[in-house]
């Protein structure tokens, strides 16, 4: 999407339903949109559902555009201009950490290390949500942007290596 694409209302609706179907113990205090681009997910999904929303994006141009788009959103809190491979969340502050259509840009080793850091960033009953396209088997390399689409099995292996456990799954 190059930071300027459109997220369909159906995508936002289904993501909202997913969040609302999480256990009641998952709070609605603070969320973060990771690999956020210009903040489409923060704006359309997280701001309406959470009291405070942060944004993490490595491209300063996109962060500046997000600040412009989200300027009137009182719930927007912090904007971090940092790559996911280097992102270090503050300990125990997030109810939800949301990744959507971004993880294909990280190699497995960086992805595992990042998830381990993110586990420290969630509250006791917090969750990490991964919404990605899935390859039917193995992985698919996009030679245009050098991203990888991983299989469900591959993601499960990564989650296990990072010390994560799956509490809910959904297909869209």
TrEMBL record:
<keyword id="KW-0949">S-adenosyl-L-methionine</keyword>
<dbReference type="GO" id="GO:0005737">
    <property type="term" value="C:cytoplasm"/>
</dbReference>
<dbReference type="InterPro" id="IPR008576">
    <property type="entry name" value="MeTrfase_NTM1"/>
</dbReference>
<dbReference type="GO" id="GO:0032259">
    <property type="term" value="P:methylation"/>
</dbReference>
<keyword id="KW-0808">Transferase</keyword>
<comment type="similarity">
    <text>Belongs to the methyltransferase superfamily. NTM1 family.</text>
</comment>
<dbReference type="GO" id="GO:0071885">
    <property type="term" value="F:N-terminal protein N-methyltransferase activity"/>
</dbReference>
<dbReference type="InterPro" id="IPR029063">
    <property type="entry name" value="SAM-dependent_MTases_sf"/>
</dbReference>
<protein>
    <recommendedName>
        <fullName>Alpha N-terminal protein methyltransferase 1</fullName>
        <ecNumber>2.1.1.244</ecNumber>
    </recommendedName>
</protein>
<keyword id="KW-0489">Methyltransferase</keyword>
<dbReference type="Pfam" id="PF05891">
    <property type="entry name" value="Methyltransf_PK"/>
</dbReference>
